[in-house]
Batch of 4 targets.
Target 1
Amino acid sequence: MLPYLFRRVLLAVPTLLGVSLLAFMAIRLIPGDPAVLMAGERASDEVVEEIRHAYGFDRPVYVQYLAYMARLLQGDLGVSTRDWQPVARTLIHRFRNTLALAGVSFVMAAVLGVSTGVLCAIRPRTVFDTANMMLGLLGLSMPAYWLGLMLMLAFSVKLRWLPVGGIGTISHLVLPTLTLSMANLGIVARLTRSGVLEVIGQDYIRTARAKGLAELRVMLNHALRNALIPIVTILGLGMGALLSGAVVTETVFSWPGMGRLLIDSIFARDYPTVQAAILLLAVLAFAINLLVDLTYAFLDPRIRYA
């Protein structure tokens, strides 16, 4: 196991270097001069030139990249050119908000999706099964921005049960997490149902039933465990998407997370924040994929990592 982990970490190094280079170059390809944005449209050319020189924008791109990597290796993510705050402090604050939103959405999709899929597999081709699969397909098909607006209209504007947006209390989490989890919930439910139905006819399932075990125990301890590997894969991919792709939901509900920070920083040409945010998301994606791979061996002892 340890050699496998060491090899995966080594392979991640060139990947993260490539991500840092792509992020560094991509933000600089966007039209617009960050020095002009920082100085203001009415600033004189002398002020703009001073800002350009102070931040190194007047140096060759490869020199800027080498200087950026040298600071990065020292743990210095730089200072935001938009609000003059340390990028590390802003990322920690925004990532905490996104993690709360994505974490609750992930748990909701995993628990409800798996339980619904198992119940549908126990009673296939019934009204309950058909209704839940149709609801799952509907949740998977609805765009996040439309679903968020409809939930906001129903529960915030009409019924006045929940706040329209913002952050602060548990009630502020309800609508964003519902919006963010619906697509993953539908995928997990359908995948769980098909996976359990696929293994339910195997010999070891018939043997467990012949021993007199309860049907729910047969489903959870035997059928579901052997169908969990593709479900864990989807959940891992879903968690990565939740952390990096919550831009629409955070925008609709005015949730101050990583998605909104990245979009606002791109429009403001805030190079340090954009580069640090993309690199952080890449590290998280690597960590989630590694955790999913290690979970395979726990679920199926036959899997070994040479």
Target 2
Amino acid sequence: MDEADRDDAPPSGGASREAQRRSLLWRIHFWAALIATPFALIAAITGIFYIFTPQIEAGLYRELDVVVPSGEPRALDDAVRAAIRASPDGWSLHSVVPQQLRTDSVRLAFMPPPAAKREGATGAGHQHGAAATAATVEKPAAFLRPSFGLPAKSLVIYVNPYTAEVLGRLPQAERFNEWARRLHSRLLQDNLRWMIELAASWVMVMLVTGIVLWWPRGLQPVLPRASASGRVAWKQWHAFIGASIGLISVVMLTTGLTWSKYAGEQVRRARDALGQGSPRIPAHFKSTVTAEGSALSWEQALRAIRSEAPDVLMQIMPPKGAEGYWRANQLDRGQPERRFDLLLDAYTGKQLYYSGWEEQTAFGKATAIGIPFHRGEFGWWNQALLLVFGLSVLFSIASGWVMYFKRRSQGMRGMPPLAQGAWTSVSAPAWAGAALMLVCMPLLALSSIAVASVELFLLLRSRQAHRGS
């Protein structure tokens, strides 16, 4: 009998400990697939859609993002003034993304007034000048909030840096990138975010059990056999492709779970406990007000920032109040080694704070590389690899269900049979690994209670049927 057929055969009453464990692995693998595959299917399809965001946005927003170079760019202040004139009444300038390439437009993000945030109302008047600030008043904090790009609630105005012409404006939330990201991570609904996390947790279980089941032993083939056909061929290809993408799967699942609510919180607790948090920017810095009381212009601030920061697409936030400071950070996550955070005195341009790649912890560097990889932001090779990965996931899901229905059509049980004594055959290291996964992924722990309840019900019903016979 082929090894693949042995796994599908009902275990005998005197099954070996190895057979008991394998029957349990098959059962858990089945449960993981049953719970995760509907959402994993959606995540794979939307993920493939998402990784081609740069090409899609290049077609959708070319008139906003791209300009024709004409001589030398004008001072950044001209673009700021033009955007302020074109912004809605009461909206405040949050940040500016200056031109990086000669064909780039200048992007300026404006935030709504506090009344509009609470009631949908619109305030009156613009905030002018280089030190235009957000209208919201926040409680003093020990550290500044991390900045990961333009706020989703902002209105972005695009300006030609050569002519100071306003090219158009677009809410950041309506950019394809934002829409595709929300579709992939939360199905466009914040209250459905837990479903994606639940699916990712069970996919991790499916991956671990699948690799253990595939791991070569005895006569089990490593590569699919050309002579195999039917359900056996499907099974061999299902196992081989699933194991082949195992490393990428771990990276994708781990980086995805770091963004999740419950598992992500566990990751952040472990990170902080190990002292692996990213550098935090103290909020106590202040600019020294000069006798003239005039802050640097946007162009002066830009030149000062570029003299201190890596050559990368960046985001600049203006000073808030008389003692505020200029703040800048990297916007292009596809160059993690150029990651930086910078604070400059508003009047002198003197450096108040700086952290770069060297100041990042090992965990910070890992996430700075892993997250852009997950998003396909390292270029065409990254996109091609993730496309192959996504298609492989789709094949694994489809082949798993093909095998299930083939089992049913051949008169076998759809659910893998469980050998007597399977639950007591688990080794101590395996129990420890399972406990670690349950602690790290709270939704997995909660849903496992439901699965265990169903298994207990099936066990009791089986014993009653056996006694009745």
Target 3
Amino acid sequence: MTKCYSQITLPKNLDEAVLYFQQNWTTKELNDFKKRTESNAVIKLHFGTGLWIRNNWVRGKRDTALTNYFHSFGISNPDDISIIILTSLHRKLNNKSVNLDKQVEKCKAYWKPIIECKEKVKVTALLNYNKYKVSDSISIYMPVDENRNAVIYECPDISWKFKDNKDLLIKGQIVRKYYINDTSNVFFTLKITSINRTDIQVLMTPIKVGDNKEFSLRGLKLD
């Protein structure tokens, strides 16, 4: 979509959001969007019109009527909001049922394992934070990607098995324990005493024996 919007009209609900585009898009824009398959149409506009929706209707300090409308269904992620609006527009143009309940269920089903995983990661981080004290020696295990960079996998796919010839093993002594902003956002400062691979960076940062390195405990495998 190439059309520029000279004015921002902030809708209060899904019907008004869909109507906005029906009234402000050209016939050609509406027809081009309508003719595509639903998934292709929504994906194609995710970083165009979808981004415009997120920046002008969802994010920042503005009238919260639209976001409150979606929050009432348990939808708060800006991407989800823009996807539902575009999906509903496509269905409306093709004389199909918007089926908002099903769209909401699909979004919630996507986030459920991620939310549960993040809660588990937070609990494990706190357990490790309380388990160890300053001066304790610990070992940290991290998966290594194809760029020789040690990473922490994101939820919900956090399961992996350590491989001696591939992954990174760091040993060291805890010199500091602390949290940032939230008591569940916990960190160790580790004085590194040994590394099984010297050709690996940690989260894009070089490390070496003798360094004091900060580690967030969220998602970190250690013993």
Target 4
Amino acid sequence: MQQTVSGSEFVLQLNKIRRLVYLAPVELNSPAQRPHHFVFWAHQALGCEVVWVDPTPARLLRWSDWRRYKAKKTLPLRPSWARDAWLTNVRMKALPFEPFSVGRLANRWLQSGKFRLLSAMLSTKDCRLVIGRPSALALQLCHAATADQALYDVMDNTPAFNTGRAARWMQQIHHSLARSVGHIWCSASKLQAQLHLEHGREAVLVRNGSNLKPTLGKAAMTPPWVIGFVGTIASWFDWAWVIKVAASVPYAEVRLYGPMLTDFPHTLPSNVFCLPAVRHEDVAALMSHWHAGLIPFKVNNLTDSVDPVKYYEYRSVGLPVLSSRFGDMLRHSDDDGLWFLEDLPLPELPLRLGQWWSQAASVRVKIVSDWDENFNRGASVIGWI
């Protein structure tokens, strides 16, 4: 029997996305972040295959890069779906001299074979390009695709992570991408405002979220209490706040889980523990033993446009959050489970925690934004679903 196809079904078939080339800002084997959640959503919601391209160095090497390399080699952080048939992980050869023209020329030669393969994928109408970080490769592939195929997901003020020539190069590439792609997402209000101011582009605000479920059990408020942090520990990490919090509750354990990419104080309080990073699949079970989540970031140009995933994860499982006043955290100031460190009399912290955990579990949990809902909304705006 011959089947008929309605007009709307015909349009859906024409617009179907069968493959996604994703230029990731982090390697697949790293603590789960927005890129991992996005790629898994894309496969589930769009039914497409995904080619995850690990990032290449966009600046000269630093000592922290060696630490990052060691952490990746010793910790199996990649998500459980990383070896599924729908995902291909591509690693491009590159020298760490991209800010220099001779470095870009050398890398273009080193990457020519895989570049041709990726370009061939983008030559089909059912393939899309998503750029998670500015790079020379991103701009080359952007020119190989049509504007409507390309989405630039701006997650950070990337040039602020660099200095000197590298910062200028990243700014140049960022501006070029913003002018070239057909669609732009951003994760924070400040990034959205900057894109409008600098380029007149109306970026879609696609906020971060959480897929963790509430931990409804009541934590026992007996020592040791646990105040935890999970995530990358780098230059934006404010050790002074960690020390103050640890001193204010000496019978609590302050546990910091994550790759250590920066120097830490030689003398930390005895109740501060630096522990290895954990897979995202294990985060919920880990947090079920915590009494508060910690986000001790410095307030500077780098964190000014950050809306941390940690906030959403901590609150979705029912934890109160101890955070410094940076970036888009100020947007959440009406949340009674968010306690800014600058405003909190730290000697009162034990009392506040006791009061928090005496409440019913349903009161402690905040309904926060969901990854799938956020990505669905963003994809709908740009016509991808």
